[in-house]
Amino acid sequence: MFTLQGKTALVTGSTSGIGLGIAQALAQAGANIVLNGFGDIDAALASITATGAQAIHHPADMRRPDEIAAMFTLAQERFGGVDIVVNNAGIQHVAPVEDFPVEKWDDILAINLSSAFHTTRLALPGMRASNWGRIVNIASVHGLVGSAGKSAYVAAKHGLVGLTKVTALEAAGTGVTCNAICPGFVLTPLVAAQIDAIAQREGITTEAAQARLLADKQPSGQFVTPEQLGNLVLMLCSPMGDQVRGAAWAMDGGWTAQ
Question: Is 149 tagged catalytic?
Fold first, then answer.
């Protein structure tokens, strides 16, 4: 088994859900963790320190480059830098293009795409200096395919896959890798809200609504779990991931195989 002892991982949007699951997996492998987000911070920190790892939290608003820079400064002061960046922060809004609120478009592009540019540009110099680093962008199946009503999210996630490829190429001669993971449905609060809306609209149980949602897109009929995503991140951080560069790795229950 490999270890991340002595490495520091910064995971954005990591006080709950997918981000917290990934942070926990990295902590269990020995990494120090920089958490970020607006969930239950105390509970998130406790779940990381329970593994024996060290953890700090920074409340950076991922729309704001100055706050992202401050988060890196804190990581430098506390742990000596950042070796692994997982860009997970994201928001969603659903509306037709002609009705899409401009401020929602701007926020989604800022949080789901531009924040990853800022973390990447800040992390790369230190990673290049040590000739080792991992940047993992949590994209989505919507970085590979589209869905009606999700113009900003799909645009941002497609952009994130593109940023991944360019970053991987620019770092190709070094020990720094950059890859994207493209999950299908994960049972997050966002997806739970979609399930509740289907149940209410169709007058069916939550279980039936869940099956309906998955049947439409995800042939496996099962949700992807944060633990599965965390294990994939670990693989990319391990020696097995040394030559995985610029990939857009679908973990989607067969969604994009159709």
Answer: no
